[in-house]
Design goal:
21% strand; five-stranded mixed beta sheet; 296 residues; D-Maltodextrin-Binding Protein, domain 2
């Protein structure tokens, strides 16, 4: 198969059908008719000599061939789009670009109110999407153009990604103000004897706190495991459970804020983006807005 004989727009259709799994939805996303999508799929099937998608229970299910090529197709499309964006003039007042972020609820609560305030005044047509992408999928998501930025701790290392520090925080422990056994200070024995809330998007496994306790030969009693740190503080306020969180999340609470009875490194937050977007002027503008938020 020769590339010069293929309409490159067909690969955009392929990617959209893969994402949407319905021809009607793909047509809506691409702003073309469903017959046009069906025609494009027929041409792709001819080029690849494969069905590419088969209809099952109302969904367009990708064939093994499609699964094998989709990531490379997405990487190629993202690279082409980045090349087109690199030297485009960027006017935030006119741009209708969508930026996609991977953040946890803590980062969303801190960043998005400030960022959306700036966007509302400086770039009213720009859209933001925020969701959590597992670290194992992060590089793939950046490569496929599914992600513009990620806020995370600096443990993701890949030559295709750039990262820069945003802020540093420290862990503290919080308890309700009327806790029957804890007041003002916290010993290691007290910490280990109380029940704890653990915040994690994963279904099992400990976190950084548990890793450091493990090095001391200790294991805390995790009574409640939840996904979102914002939900944990009201639970602490009404129970005797303890919660270990970044100090920045304790602002505006009536909880006791206690020093941890063991040493643990500071928590660093970094901003990640794909190296190919380094010269993208829209990306540069958004990066500066994010940096400004953390300079406040």
């Amino acid at each position: 198969m020769q590339l010069s004989k293929i309409d490159m727009n067909l690969f955009i259709v392929l990617d959209t059908i893969y994402s949407e799994r319905k021809l009607t939805k793909a047509a809506e996303v691409l702003h073309i008719t469903q017959p046009a999508v069906s025609n494009a799929l027929a041409r792709l099937r001819g080029h690849f000599n494969d069905e590419l998608f088969v209809r099952q229970s109302g969904q367009m299910v990708p064939t093994p061939l499609t699964e094998n090529i989709i990531e490379r197709v997405r990487e190629a499309l993202a690279s082409l789009q980045s090349s087109l964006n690199e030297h485009d003039a960027f006017d935030p007042q006119q741009s209708n670009r969508t930026f996609r972020f991977s953040m946890n609820d803590t980062s969303e609560a801190y960043v998005l109110p400030r960022l959306m305030e700036v966007i509302e005044s400086e770039a009213p047509n720009i859209n933001i999407e925020s969701y959590t992408i597992p670290r194992a999928d992060m590089v793939r998501a950046f490569s496929a153009g599914e992600l513009d930025f990620a806020l995370d701790v600096p443990i993701i290392n890949h030559s295709d990604l750039v990262n820069t520090p945003l802020t540093t925080d420290r862990y503290v422990c919080v308890a309700r103000s009327e806790h029957p056994r804890i007041a003002s200070t916290l010993s290691l024995d007290q910490y280990m004897s109380e029940a704890h809330i653990h915040v994690s998007s994963r279904r099992k496994g400990g976190g950084q706190i548990d890793a450091y306790l493990g090095r001391l030969g200790l294991q805390r009693n995790i009574k409640l495991r939840i996904q979102h740190s914002r939900a944990a503080r009201p639970i602490v306020a009404k129970t005797d459970m303890l919660l270990t969180i970044p100090e920045s999340l304790t602002r505006g609470t009536n909880l006791q804020v206690l020093e941890l009875p063991f040493a643990i490194p500071m928590l660093d937050w970094h901003l990640y983006w794909a190296e190919r977007h380094e010269s993208d002027r829209a990306h540069q503008w958004m990066r500066e807005r994010i940096f400004d938020i953390f300079r406040e």
